[in-house]
Amino acid sequence: MTADLNESLRLFRLIIPAFPEVNVFTRMAKKTTALGPVMVATCANKVWGWRAEVIDENNYRGPRNVQGLPDHEVLQRENPAQAVGFYTGLSSTIERVWELAGLYKRMKVPTIAGGWHAHYLPEETLSHNVDIVVHGDGEEAIAQILPVLLNKELLSLVGGISFIQDQKMTTTYFKENKVSDIGLLPYPDFNLVRYARIKVYPISRIRGCSRNCEFCSVKGEPRFSTSRHLFNIVQWLNDTRRAKNFFIVDDRLEEDLKGTLEFFEMISKEYGDSFNFQVQIRLEAAENNRLLEAMKKAGVRFVSIGAESPIDEDLKSMRKGYLSSKMVEWVAMIKRYFWVHLMFIAGYPLKGKKCELSPKEIVKRFKKFIRRARPNSIQVLLPGPGAGTDLRKRLEAQARIFPQDIVPWRYYDGNYVCFIPDGMTTRELQGIPAKIMRWFYWRPFRLLHFLFRTFIIFPIDFFLRGKELSVKSLIREKLCYEAYGLIKKWIERFRKSDFMGKLEEYQQKKLS
Ligand code: B12
Ligand code: SF4
Fold first, then answer.
1. Domain residues for 273?
2. Are residues 259 and 157 in the same domain?
3. Which protein residues touch ligand 1 with a CB less than 6 Å away?
4. Same structural domain for residues 20 and 156?
5. Binding site membership of 216 for ligand 2 (Cβ less than 6 Å)
6. 158 and 71 in one domain?
7. How far is the CA of 378 from the centre of ligand 2 (A)?
8. pTM beyond cutoff 0.85
9. CB–CB of 223/206 below 8 Å?
10. Which H or E element spans position 201?
11. Quick check: is 176 in a domain?
């Protein structure tokens, strides 16, 4: 590793890699950014002799190359970084990380990676031009790494990192960094995100999750800061950046119910419901009226819920922790307060037995549930056996994961089949989510329907039902219009690709 570390003030550039393709998350990503790299950059920016910047490739308005992607050669020429870091929280973006790590390595810049994918697969990451993998929380680790970047002896004194020494991987003396007191972390400095326009601010108070869903990468006992800490962050972002829209990225607000209630009560006392909060909760939160009331009063308008499946066998295999009996009721209870976005996983591989339902029956069961629960919006994905998950381990043990040359990591965004199903063909499994999504977002004479709802129905609705309900309906129509267009485009592109052909050819060869 060589780099010009004699610069007076050195630059650490953190890169959030581009999503491999346009999907339902693209629009959201253009308005926000990833919190983890911003936190790491915030801490790096405080290291003596270093400054930091974040380049979020999904929210970027800087120089681009011929492929339309951020041009890192230009960035490096204009503003040379002495070290770069990569966010690997999403496996689907790991190939872009490898590409960029190669590019920066050719420019002789040391490379560091952190996030779930690199944590679970350090050897793979290190074999793709990454010099150091940071396991777990990056804030304290980066402050220790930057001053000793090029000195392997001193580097081995930093805990929870992996690197190559004497041609093999060394992992230092503990497996994962865990910030002991989240309340001592600095506030995220979004000014460091260069060339971005941030409208929705990701914030967090809780890390880890006490549940153990089979498909999930998030592991570890929950740790949290005080409600006051998060309140202060919101206040500071509002004071310094006029932030009003926040996405609380905590997986489960209910992990510290007392603190969560306190936080929302503090917000509503100070700001009423003038802010906009998006949050993620579990369906069972419906049982907690006090929580829902407090959230509503504080300006929570949108909740994402991993409902996963209305089929009990799926829920059991996922270890979701509830069965379907009360799901419709729970959705109805939460819907009284918020816009409810339900996230589903369809075609989950069952544990210990074959799926007895036909693909047609699965689609029917999902539709029936959705018709009864009436969520405001939905997202149906395929099971993603992500790196480090128990689901991946189970499928690997059964030799059911498609190898990387057939289904590389870029397809791990929930839209593609990544494993061999049983009880149905690969093509049948691939088709399930699109069937449900298309049905949900379809409207007859789409454009006419949208225009009619906007210009004729909306004013009448506004007059009869008032602002809140009529605007909600209008947003839903707009969303249906856009989502259907996106789904249609995705399906057209998918049909033109040879993805299914490759999978089927592989399976054929495996059988013969
Ligand atoms: C917010 C979020 C999103 C947002 C992303 C917004 C954005 N721009 O990032 C949205 C809603 C768009 C999203 C979408 C999806 N997501 Co998501 N998402 C999350 C969530 C809930 C929180 C991430 C977060 O901010 N955490 C808080 C920060 C502080 O922690 P952190 O990111 O881990 O960062 C710390 C360390 O990792 C480390 N670190 C991170 N980067 C770096 C870099 C360096 C150099 C260093 C030193 C350290 C370091 O330091 C940080 C600070 O301590 C995570 C779950 C989770 N808890 O991580 C899932 C998660 C990342 N998502 C996941 C998935 C599967 C998806 C989807 C594919 C499907 C879905 N669930 O809807 C889509 C993918 C979209 C696509 N285009 O491919 C999986 C990823 C698994 C994997 N290995 O791929 C996770 C882990 C959830 C899970 N159930 O397993 N997601
Ligand atoms: S899916 Fe949600 S509830 Fe389940 S383990 Fe992951 S973070 Fe926890």
1. 200-387
2. no
3. 14, 19, 23, 25, 28-29, 32-37, 39-40, 85-87, 89-92, 112-117, 134, 137-139, 141-142, 202, 204, 216-218, 249, 251, 343, 381, 384, 386-387, 412-414
4. yes
5. yes
6. yes
7. 18
8. yes
9. yes
10. strand 200-203
11. no
